[in-house]
Every structure is written in C-alpha cells, then in structure tokens.
Amino acid sequence: MLKNLSVSAKGFIAFGILAAIAIASSTFIYNRSLVAHSQVSEASTVNKVVSAIDLFGADLSSANLYLKTFLLTGNRDYAASSQDVVAKMTTDKAALEALFTEAAPAELPKLKEAFSTLDTWKTNFADRQILLMRDPVTVELARAIEVTGEGEALASAFQAQLGDVKAAMAIRAAAATENQN
User: Fold this and answer.
1) What is the value of pTM for the model shown?
2) Phi and psi (nearest 5°) for 5?
3) Cβ atoms of residues 161 and 113 within 8 Å
4) How far is CA 163 from CA 54, 56, 166, in A?
5) Which of 37, 25, 3 is nearest to 176 (CA)?
6) Across the chain, what does the average pLDDT equal?
7) Which residues contact 20 (CB under 8 A, 6 or more apart)?
8) Among 39, 67, 144, 153, which one has the highest count of C-beta atoms within 10 angstroms of its own C-beta?
9) Contact 47, 103 (CB under 8 A)
10) What would the pLDDT profile of 10-56 be if each residue is shown by its tens digit?
11) Helix axes 7-73, 76-103, angle to 10 degrees
12) In the 8-state DSSP scheme, what is residue 123?
C-alpha cells in the first residue's frame, strides 16, 4: 500500500502521525499539570491551616505561662498579659473557624471540641484564679487551684485535641503531596 503512495503523501502521513502523538502527549501532560496544580493548592491550604493551629496552640501556652507566673509572683502585669493573650485567642477563634469552614470542614467538629476545652480552661481556671488573686484572703486558694493540676490537664487536653486536628491535616497534606507525582 505504501509503495503506491507518493513521497509527499508518505510525508503527510508521517507528519500526521507525529502530530497525533504530540497532541496526545500534550493533552496528557496538560491534564497531569492540572492535577498537580490542584494538589499543590491543597497542600498549601493544609500548610496554612496547620500553621494557624500551631500559632493558636502557642498562644494558649503563653497565656498559661503568664497565668502561672502571675500566681507565683502576684505581679498583675502577668495577669494582664494572660488576659490579653486569651482575648486575642477569642478573636482568633472566629478566623480559625472560618478558615476551617472553607478549607477543612470535616475537621471543624474536632476544632469546636478543642474550643470548648479552651473555654472551660478560661472560665473555670484562668478567670477564676485571676479573680481570687485580687483578694488577699483568697490568694492561697488561687494557688491551691493550680496545684490540683486540673487546669494543666485541660490545657494539655486542648493541645492534644489540636494535635489530633493537625494529624488529620497532615494526612491530607501527605495525600496531596503523593498525588502531585
């Protein structure tokens, strides 16, 4: 069959086959680049969420440290610093919830559970201890509340709950990274 075709026709056929191969491979590469782009975006979003979680957890550690320093020294500057950090965390909660609603809605219940633990720590321990430290008669009671370890247990539970959320996000990040290849 090819013997009966002219050289020009054979050239056109060869060019057509090469063009078809080029189009097919370009389409495949384009589709893979779209998948990689979406996975890179996913990994970036997950990293943003994990970073926000880390900052939020560090804020609780700072507030707890300020509170303990206040209980040890009685210096009200530490109490004010603790309350400032907790107030900042309260405003950051809404932003973190919005970020999770957009980026990780499946993890939102775990985050709200962590927020509930944070609120319990704030009302039952931080606010109560600061209030008790204001009256000289109840200073030792405020310090005794800290010795029970319940406040530290709640702070640790909050950090553990944030760790669970981070672990779930790390699984998503690993899947996104794996799908990039």
Assistant:
1) 0.76
2) -90, 150
3) yes
4) 9, 11, 5
5) 37
6) 89
7) none
8) 67
9) no
10) 889 999 999 999 999 999 999 988 888 888 888 888 888 889 999 99
11) 150
12) I
